[in-house]
Specification:
alpha/beta; 5-stranded parallel β-sheet; Rossmann fold; about 130 residues; 5 strands
Length: about 130
């Protein structure tokens, strides 16, 4: 089901350059990106509104992305929002399995292929 509203993404990553670069690339595809550099910032953003998709780095300064994913999937308000875990370091099959078992809808390795990410977001939003 496709909606007429713009796709919004909450990108939770402590790398400001990565957040800015990804937001610029996604804007070209009419995807609005809101950024958070930590779990506490992400929780504040989620308290204001729910995005179409959450992109969540596995390694964050305050809480692991895997743990935040677990919390989001247990919360009735956020459990329906698709979560894509992103990681540069934890890319082994066991890492991917752990992430998916916490409820993540996808697990992508960094560096991110923008086209693959856009395809994943489109798939998650449309299904």
């Amino acid at each position: 089901m496709t909606t007429a509203t713009q796709t919004t993404v909450l990108l939770v990553d402590d790398d400001a350059h990565f957040r800015e670069t990804l937001a610029d690339a996604m804007a070209l595809k009419d995807v609005r990106v809101e950024s958070a550099g930590s779990v506490s910032e992400a929780k504040r953003a989620l308290a204001e509104h729910l995005p179409s998709v959450i992109l969540l780095d596995v390694q964050l300064p305050d809480v692991s992305g895997v743990e935040l994913c677990r919390q989001l999937k247990r919360d009735p308000r956020t459990k329906g929002v698709p979560v894509v875990l992103l990681s540069a370091k934890y890319t082994e099959p066991a890492d991917r399995a752990e992430g998916l078992l916490t409820g993540a809808d996808a697990y992508l390795a960094k560096p991110i292929n923008i086209e693959a990410l856009q395809d994943e977001i489109r798939y998650l939003v449309d299904n």
